[in-house]
Amino acid sequence: MNDDTAAPLVTRRGEEHRDTGQSGGAVRVSGVSVQHTPATKIWFGKVSNEPGYRSLPHHHGEAETGGYVLTGTARIYYGESYSEWVDMHEGDFVFVPPYMPHVEANMSTTEELIWLTTRTPENIVVNLEDVDDATLEGYHRA
Predict the structure, then answer these.
(1) 15: Cβ–Cβ under 8 A, 6 or more apart, which residues?
(2) Pairing between β-strand 84-89 and β-strand 73-78 as defined by DSSP bridges
(3) Is 23 exposed, middle or buried (CB count within 10 Å of its CB: 0-12, 13-18, 19+)?
(4) What are the residues whose beta carbons fall under 8 Å from the beta carbon of 33, sequence distance 6 or more?
(5) Mean pLDDT by 10 residues, the chain (142 residues)
(6) What is 6-53 written as a DSSP string?
(7) What domains can you pick out in the chain, each with its CATH number?
(8) Torsion (CA) 85, 90, 94, 99 in degrees, nearest 10
(9) Buried b (16+ CB within 10 A) or exposed e, 78-92
(10) Residues 59/99, Cβ–Cβ less than 8 Å
């Protein structure tokens, strides 16, 4: 069905939706979400980690998550006691399965990390019990 009255909706820089699920040092803002656009099945936004910051352990419930590293160096810790990880650099994409506990970390203590992130159906964030930084191999705070 074609709706001739539909039109693209732009969310301008600085007008992103900021009242969305958060997890510690990973700050999320959405450009497209059910909270402020006609979208019904997608959350698309930007996640930033200041130098040396990381998220709390969390998962995204039923949501499938796709991420793209726009700038910086990222590490996602996962697995038992967050002892496994994958590293990502500018230009890398990542898929995070539903319900997978993980920690997102900025591995640089001097440069900001910015992700573009999308998930369906929306930005579900379920924070879990925090872990000591020392359990995250190679991670250092700024």
Answers:
(1) none
(2) antiparallel
(3) buried
(4) 17, 20, 39, 42, 43, 44, 45, 122, 123
(5) 71 81 78 87 90 95 95 97 97 96 96 94 92 96 85
(6) -------TT--B--S--BBTBEEEEEE-TTTSS-SS-EEEEEEE-TT-
(7) 27-135 (2.60.120.10)
(8) 60
(9) beeebeebeebeeee
(10) yes
If residue 102 lies in a helix (H) or strand (E), which one and from where to where? strand 102-106
Residue 110 CA neighbour count, 13 Å, CB half = 0
Encoded amino acid at 62, one letter: E
Q: 89 pairs with which residues across the strands? A: 73
